[in-house]
Structure prediction request, 1238 residues.
Amino acid sequence: MPNLLVDERDQKFVLYEQLKIDELCQYAKYGEFSREMFDMVLEAAQKLAEKELAPTNQDGDVKGVSLEGGQVRVPESFHQAYRYYCEGGWASLPIDQEMGGQGFPSALYCATMELFAAANQAFSMYPGLTIGAARLIEHYGTEEQQREYMDKMYTMEWCGTMCLTEPQAGSDVGALRTRATKRPDGSYSIVGNKIFISAGDHDLSENIIHMVLARVEGAPPGTKGISIFIVPKYRIENGEFVPNDVACTAVEKKMGIHGSSTCALSFGEKESCIGYLLGQENEGMKIMFNMMNEARLAVGMQGLSQASAAYMQALRYAKDRQQGPEISTMKDPNAPKVPIFDHPDVRRMLLWMKSVTEGMRALLYYAGYCEDRVKCAPTLEEAAKYQGFLDILIPICKAWSSDMGFRVTELAVQVHGGYGYCREYPVEQNMRDVKIASIYEGTNGIQALDLVGRKLSYKQGILFKNIVQETGILLKSAKKNYRLKDIVEPFDVARKHLIEVTRYFGLKSITEDFMTPILYATPYLELFGDVAIGFMLLWQAVIADRRLQELYDDAKADTPEKKAELVKTNRSAAFYRGKLASAQFFANTILPLAPGKARSIMSGERSAIDLPEESFALF
Amino acid sequence: MPNLLVDERDQKFVLYEQLKIDELCQYAKYGEFSREMFDMVLEAAQKLAEKELAPTNQDGDVKGVSLEGGQVRVPESFHQAYRYYCEGGWASLPIDQEMGGQGFPSALYCATMELFAAANQAFSMYPGLTIGAARLIEHYGTEEQQREYMDKMYTMEWCGTMCLTEPQAGSDVGALRTRATKRPDGSYSIVGNKIFISAGDHDLSENIIHMVLARVEGAPPGTKGISIFIVPKYRIENGEFVPNDVACTAVEKKMGIHGSSTCALSFGEKESCIGYLLGQENEGMKIMFNMMNEARLAVGMQGLSQASAAYMQALRYAKDRQQGPEISTMKDPNAPKVPIFDHPDVRRMLLWMKSVTEGMRALLYYAGYCEDRVKCAPTLEEAAKYQGFLDILIPICKAWSSDMGFRVTELAVQVHGGYGYCREYPVEQNMRDVKIASIYEGTNGIQALDLVGRKLSYKQGILFKNIVQETGILLKSAKKNYRLKDIVEPFDVARKHLIEVTRYFGLKSITEDFMTPILYATPYLELFGDVAIGFMLLWQAVIADRRLQELYDDAKADTPEKKAELVKTNRSAAFYRGKLASAQFFANTILPLAPGKARSIMSGERSAIDLPEESFALF
Prediction:
C-alpha cells in the first residue's frame, strides 16, 4: 500500500526519468552513490514520514506548543518523532561529507523534504531552521565555531534558528534595532527584541543556536550596517551550560502550524547575552543572502507538500464517498449511487490539483537539481548556467508554489464538502498550515520584486535569456512529436506572451518608468510561474509519451481499445497516461489565460497608484 | 468615525444612487416608507453591528460552542447580543406586516445582513436559520401552525433550523432515510439522524423549531417522496413544554464559525418524536425549493460580508503599518519609512479587494432589489422579468461571492504579513469563517450545475436572453459617454465571450453532448460571475462619472490639477473617483482573462472524464 502523502511513483519519475539524477553519479562528487542507494533513502524517508511523522500531525495541531515558565514545550509525540529523525541522520542528507553530512544530491533531499513536510509541516520546521543556521556556520564560521556549533547542529543534537524580524522590521529588515557591543574578549553583548522566530524556543534539544542579525554600534544605517551573530541559548563555559539571557516572552497563536513554535525572543534584557560574530562586521546581509535560495526553496516545498498530501486525501475521499447517481441516470431515483469521483466537477477539480501539484514537484526538484549541477559542473560556465536557472526560478519556486499549493488545499476542502470544513479530516489542517508559506521567508510580494527588480535585470537579462533558450529547445523537440502536436500550441503561445511582457518591462525600465514593473511584479510572477510549471509538464509529457508508446509497442496494443485496456491493467501505462493528461489539462485550461494575463499587465492600468488615498474608503 | 465593517458610503450609493430604493416607496407595498426611514434603519443596524455584535466575534471564535449533557451552549457574550438583536426586531425586517414583520424592502435587508454578518458571521446564523424556517411556515403552514410557531420565530422568541443533510445524503438529498409514520391524530412519528445542522441546538432561545425532511412510509424513492415536517424541540401540551426526543449527539469541530453550533441531531431514537406535516405529503422538495433563492442569497452575503470586513481591516492596517521607505528612495537607508499603503503591490491588492467587494455588494443588493420589484410589480410580465433576473443570478450570488469573498480575505491576510497569520488580527478569523460559504447551502459545484442545467435551459433560454438584453442597454449608454470610452471595451469583449460560450453550450445540448456543459459548469459560472460583477461596476461607473462631473462643474474644477485637488478635499468627489477606479481596475485586470476563460471552456479538453481512474494516482 503506497503512502497517502506523496505520489511516490511521480517522485521517482521526476528524479530518474526527468532529471536522471542517477547520472549525477558519473561525477566524482556523487561517484560513490547509485540509484539503489537513492531508492533506499527514498524508501526509508517514506517510512519515517508515514509511520512516525504523520501520526503526530494532528496532535501538533490540536495541542500546539505551550509556554510555561519561560520554556516552550512541544507536544509530547514530537519528541519520539524527533528521535527517529535524528537517528536517521536526515538533517544532514545533502551536507558535504567533509562537514559531517552524507553528501547526497539536493534533488533527492527535496524528495525527502516533501515527504516530511507532507507528513507534518510544523515538525519539519525544527530541522529546517537548524540546517539553515548550521549552513551559515559551515560557510562563514571559523573552524572553532564549526566544531563548537555546526557539528552538533548537523546531528540535530542542538537546534538552530534565524533571528531577523523585529516589531518594526519585517520586510524592511534594514530597520532592525538589535544592538551588538564588542567586548574585550572579542565577543559581543547583544541587546534587542525579535519576533516571529520559528523554532525560537522548544524542548526538543538541550541547546538552541540563534543566528541573530544585529547592528554593531557605529555601523552604517540600513542593511549595510547589519552583522550576524551566533547566539546560543546556553553558552558552554568549562563544560557547563550557562544561560545566555535569551528569553522567550511569547508564542504566537496562529492560523496553523500550531506545532511549530513562533516566538518573541528578548536578548540581553536582564543579564548579559553574549554573541559571537560570524564572518566580518557588517557582512550580515551578504551572509544571509547566500542562504536565501535554500530557505526559499524549502518554503516552496511546504506549498508542494501540503498540496501533495491534500490531493492524495481528496482523491481517496472521492473514491470512497458515495453520493448521488451517475450523471446520465440522475433522474432515476433508483439508480445506484456512485463515488463522487465519478462526478465530472469532482474529476475536474482533482485533475487540476494533480496537474498543478506535479508541475510544482518537477519545478522544485529541478531547483534542487540545479544546485547539484552547480556543485559538480566541470566548467565555470556550466556552473553559472545552472546557478542562473536556480536564481531566476527561486522566487517562482517560493511564491507560485505557496500560492498555488494553497489553492490545491482549498480545492481538497471543497472536494470533501462539509467534511472538508471539519477538523476530523486532515485537509482542513493542510489548508491552514500552508497559508503561512505565502508570507514568511519574504512575502510573495517581495519575491515578485526580487524577480522583477533583481533577477530580470541581472547582467542584461542573461538569466531570462537562458530560460527562453532552454524552453525553446524543449518546444522544438516537442513539436517534432506528432502525437503531442495538439497540446504544444498553448505552451508556445504562453511562452511568447511571457517574452513579450518581459521585453515590455525592459522598455519601461529604459524609459525610466520603474513603476509599471513594480506595480505588476506579482501578476508577472504568476504568469512566469504558469509558463515555468507548464514547461515542466511539457518536458514530462515528452518523456511519458515515449515510454507509453514503448509499452503499447511491447504489448502490441495498436488500436484505441487495446491501448485503453493496457492503461487500465498496466500500472506503468496508467501512470504515463496520467502524466500526459496533466500536461494536456494544464495546456488547455490554465495556459489559455496567459494572453489575458499579459494583456492585463500591459494595459497601462495604474489606478492602484494614481488613486488618492481618500478614494479607497472614507475613514 | 465610520464603522470598520462595511463601507457605509458605498452601501448608500448602491441603495439610493444605483438601485434608487427610495423610488420603491411609490408603490403601495412600500408606500409608508421613505428614505429617511431607510436611513434610520441603516444607522441602527450599523450601531448594533459595531457596538454589540462585533465585540462578540472573537469570543465566539475562541470559546466556541460546547455540548454538555445533551445541551449546546453558546459563548456567554452571544446572549446579550441576541437580546439586542431581538429587541430591534431585526429578524423580521423584510417580513410582510400582515405576518407580523416590518415589511421593509429586501434590498435594505441585504444591507443590514451584510453589516451583521460582517460583525459576526457565526452569530448571524441563528437568526438566519430561524427566518428561513419561519418563512416556510408563512408560505405553507396552516393558520394554526403560523400562530403556534411562526409568530414566535419572527420575534426570535423561538429559533428554527433546516434539517436536510444525513450522513449518506448531502448533495444527494433524495437519498435521505429519516422516516415519518402517520399517527392516528394526524401528526407523524419521526425517526432518523441528521448531520451538519446549523444552529441545531443552543441555549439562545427556549425552544427550537426544526424543519425536517423525511420520507413517509410507502412514499416514492428519491426527491419525489420527501415530505417536510415541523418538529419542535419541545412540544407544547396544555401550556407545558414537553421534550420531543430531538437529541443533539455531537457538535462539529470546524475550521471557522466556531460560535455557530453545527449539530448531529437524532430524532425519535429513544422516545417518540412528533412532527407536524407542512403542506402536503411528498411536497417537501417543492417547498424547500421555494426558499432556496433566499437562503443562497444569504450565503452569498456571508462571502460579501467577510470580504467587506477584511478589506476595511486591511486598509486600516496598511495605513497604520510603517515599513520600508517609498520605492523611489529604496536605496537610501536614511529615507523616512512610509505606511505600507504607499507600496504599489499593497495598493494593487487593496484595489483588487475594493473592486471585487463593491461588485459583489452591488450584485447581492440587486438580487434583493429584484425580490422587491417582483413583489410590487404592476404586471405579471414585470414580475416575471425580475424573478428571472433573480433566478439566473442566484447561483452566481452564492458561488461567485463565496469563492471571491474568500479570495478577498486571503489577500487581507497577505496585506497583514506575518500578523495576518496570527489570531491577534481579525482577518485570520474572517478567512476561516468565510470558507464554509463555498460549501453549504449547495456546494459551489451544485450552484454551477443549477446555473447550467436548470437556469440556462429554462423556457428556451429566456433568462439568459434577458441578461444579454439588459447588459446591452447598459453598454450602449456607457459607450455614449466619451469619458468612459477607455474602459468600456473590456466589458463589451467579456460579454461577447460569455454569449459565445452560452451558445456553444446550447449547441452541445442540441447534439446531446450534455457532458461538456456539465464538465465546465464551474468555470462557466466563474466567467458569468466576472461579467455580471463587471456590469454592476460599469453601471456604477456611469452614475459615478455623472456625479463627479457635476461636482467638478460646481467647483469650476476645469483642469486636471483642480480636479485632483477637489478629489483630495471633497469626500463625495473622493468617493466617486474611487467608484470609477473600481470599475476601471476590474475592466483592465480581471476582465481581460475572459477570452482565455472562454477558450478554455470551449477547448474540448475532456481529460478529466476520459482519464481512467488508475491514472489519477496508484493506490
Remarks:
- Chain B has 20 helices and 14 strands.
- The mean pLDDT of chain B is 96.
